[in-house]
């Protein structure tokens, strides 16, 4: 019989690779924003965040995930929708702070996944007080960070049994998770664009 733990490891790796591909699809280029630079950007940024968190909760509210270790496959379309909404939110927050030019691949990964996997994004952005030192990662390095994040997410989905409890919790649980996740992304983005962003030559 095949070794079960080896099969599970392969499933985790396959899941993380798929998730990493989706992540890189959405951080490859910054979405356009219609937001204007604000004299008091924090107020507008909070309004953008409130709108996005409510929209994320409504979008994810219809999520139903079938039980079983491969249930994450049906979650990928929901993650795509969530990350698309979140990347737009981050772009809009950057715009109202007048920092669209500073929002590249590394910064987007940092804003989206700092709360999910702080260890992985540390290779991209170092926090020194209110100063953020960005390392312009080459594409292979960025892909490596995305793979680490994908592995973390897939292990959380499969290893902690989310594929078993979401069908019970249903739309309410999915909406609550999307709301929480998006609010954390918004908080990171506001802190990041409020601070000094330093990109070494």
What can you see in these coordinates?
By secondary structure, this protein is mainly alpha-helical. The protein has a domain of 138 residues. It has 7 helices and 3 strands. The protein has a 3-stranded mixed sheet. A hairpin with a 2-residue loop joins strand 1 and strand 2. The protein is globular and about 40 Å long. The mean pLDDT is 78.
Task: Give the tags.
single chain; about 200 residues; mainly alpha; three-stranded mixed sheet; 7 helices; about 70% helix; about 5% strand
Succession of helices and strands: HHHHHEEHHE
Rg estimate, integer Å? 17 Å
Largest sheet: 3 strands, mixed
Helix content: 55-70%
Strand-pairing-aware structural class: mainly alpha
Spatial order of strands in the largest sheet: 1-2-3
The N- to C-terminal Cα distance equals 55 Å
Could you tell me the number of beta strands?
Answer: 3
Quaternary state reads single chain
Number of helices: 7
**Which ranges are low-confidence, i.e. pLDDT below 50, for 5 or more consecutive residues?**
none
Strand content: 5-15%
Average pLDDT confidence is 78
Principal-axes geometry comes out as globular
Quick recap:
The chain is mainly α. Helices cover 68% and strands 5% of the residues.
Secondary structure topology:
Layout lengths: L3 H24 L13 H20 L11 H25 L8 H9 L4 H4 L3 E4 L2 E4 L4 H21 L2 H33 L1 E3 L3
Parallel strand pairs: 2-3
Antiparallel strand pairs: 1-2
Helix pairs in contact: 1-3, 1-6, 2-3, 2-7, 3-7, 4-7
